[in-house]
Specification:
The chain is mainly α and 237 residues long. Helix content is 39%, strand content 0%. It is built from 9 helices and no strands. Helix 2 crosses helix 5. The N terminus is likely disordered.
Length: 237
């Protein structure tokens, strides 16, 4: 008779079920969720919250030296609204990302993941209530013809904003899975006559406005027209 069998079975069951997490603070578990693409139920998702957001309470919403499509979520839990006033609850703002960009189902308020993410963002929001931050979506996109770009600045912008998902330009080396396109080659192949305009469209609208893919968009506050022009110059478009 194996006297250790039940104990070993219980230990294995605990490891599978995550019994060890019961003593871990919710905010710490939320930090893990924040960095985990598995937060989304989509088997194709490669994004985590941390792909597009920092969570640094000591930094402003747009962190110098970074080009994130999403705002810094430090001190965000107490905002009066999110997504440019379109969402009035933090969980609804989280669910916008989950469903639109990460391809998963929305979280219910009583789910562990929702509570843990909330605890993490609360812990990163020591300032309490804070003002909403502006989010200007460019409604009418132009190809920015006539706006001069700088290749050196464009290379820096690519490395800070685009490389984390698309990898290296022209080859896609190091990209986040196979879904992000190889830029600009895939665009030139599909849209040989207006690749420049399509790249600007993707930057400004992402998957919105009936554009395919799951790319998040860049508002005017986080990427200026001049920075977009720099990217185009670097890509040779």
């Amino acid at each position: 008779m194996n006297r250790g069998g039940p104990a070993i079975g219980f230990l294995l069951a605990c490891l599978i079920a995550g019994c060890g997490d019961r003593d871990v603070p919710a905010a710490e578990l939320g930090e893990r969720r924040f960095a985990d693409p598995g937060l989304s139920t989509s088997p194709f998702n490669r994004f985590s919250c941390a792909t597009c957001h920092a969570a640094d309470a000591a930094a402003p919403p747009v962190i110098p030296g970074r080009l994130d499509s999403g705002y810094n979520l430090g001190n965000s839990a107490g905002r009066g609204s999110w997504w440019g006033t379109y969402e009035l609850r933090l969980l609804d703002a989280v669910n916008t990302c989950l469903s639109d960009f990460m391809g998963g189902r929305k979280l219910a308020p009583d789910e562990d993941a929702a509570r843990q993410l909330g605890a993490f963002l609360d812990a990163r929001s020591p300032a309490g209530r804070s003002d909403p931050v502006p989010l200007s979506v460019v409604r009418i996109v132009t190809s920015l013809q006539g706006l001069p770009g700088d290749q050196a600045r464009g290379k820096q912008a690519w490395e800070r904003a685009c490389a984390r998902c698309h990898g290296a330009p022209h080859t896609g080396a190091g990209r986040l899975g196979i879904r992000p396109t190889v830029v600009p080659e895939d665009t030139l192949r599909s849209f040989p006559n207006n690749a420049r305009a399509v790249v600007v469209e993707k930057i400004r609208h992402g998957r919105y406005f009936n554009i395919g893919g799951v790319m998040p968009f860049y508002s005017l506050e986080v990427m200026t027209d001049l920075q977009v022009a720099d990217l185009l110059a670097y890509l040779g478009l």
